[in-house]
Amino acid sequence: MSKLSAWFGGTFDPIHNGHLHCAREIASLLDLDNVTLLPNNVPPHRPQPEATAAQRVELLKCAIQDDPLFSIDRRELDRDTPSWTIDTLTLLRKEIGETAPLAFIIGQDSLLSINQWERWQEILEYCHLVVAQRPGYSSQHADNKVQSWITRHLTDAASLPLQPCGGIFLADTSLYTISATDIRRRLHLGLSCQDLLPDAVIEYIADTGLYRPC
Ligand code: ATP
């Protein structure tokens, strides 16, 4: 049985303890050796991150510096064009081969907007989706067809390494009421983000003046 490899995409503007704690819990549940953080290249027609791509990578480096579980993959940032998740998954699948199990970690809010992703119904041809709980988001999709697609693919932790792709695993992670939007709002107001961000991330933000009060 091959080891499950896990990828966690996000804007990470900034990475916060909600991301990190969920990923660590999932790693423990699924016995993962590594979680690769994949910062997104945000398409120009979408609201742009406040931090530059280079700053978001620096924030990631600060966040994971003491934790060998994590690594960073810059491929989406290094590409000239914004990339869809499906394109990245296609490349990853080519790299790891057809039979290696691949997990893509998302939060419950992302699962609820999955039908807005480019070629969303093909995603499970490349990976499993491992979904972290997120407070305040419904456990059911509002669109019955999307919900029945989700239900059809539900699987359990033990089954994930047995197949390369095709499953949706709803991980019973703790609820973390932390979002990057709220962190940016707090920092703009000059409020503390102690407990919401790793110390090294707080220091980087203070040193660079990123998200400074406006
Ligand atoms: P924003 O508030 O700006 O939308 P965010 O906090 O959701 O940002 P992202 O970088 O957009 O952070 O999220 C990357 C992934 O992490 C998404 O799949 C999202 O669902 C998940 N995620 C973010 N915060 C949490 C959290 N507190 N609990 C569980 N999953 C989360």
TrEMBL record:
Residues 7-186 form the Cytidyltransferase-like domain. Coiled coil: none annotated. Its EC number is 2.7.7.18. Pfam families: CTP_transf_like. Gene3D superfamilies: HUPs. Signal peptide: none annotated. One of its GO terms (molecular function) is nicotinate-nucleotide adenylyltransferase activity. Keywords: ATP-binding, NAD, Nucleotide-binding, Nucleotidyltransferase, Pyridine nucleotide biosynthesis, Transferase. The keyword Transferase applies. The keyword Nucleotidyltransferase applies. It catalyses: nicotinate beta-D-ribonucleotide + ATP + H(+) = deamido-NAD(+) + diphosphate. It comes from the Bacteria. Pathway: Cofactor biosynthesis; NAD(+) biosynthesis; deamido-NAD(+) from nicotinate D-ribonucleotide: step 1/1. Belongs to the NadD family. Catalyzes the reversible adenylation of nicotinate mononucleotide (NaMN) to nicotinic acid adenine dinucleotide (NaAD). NCBIfam families: cyt_tran_rel, nicotinate (nicotinamide) nucleotide adenylyltransferase, PRK00071.1-1, PRK00071.1-3. This is Probable nicotinate-nucleotide adenylyltransferase. It comes from Rosenbergiella gaditana. The lineage of its organism: Bacteria, Pseudomonadati, Pseudomonadota, Gammaproteobacteria, Enterobacterales. The gene is nadD.
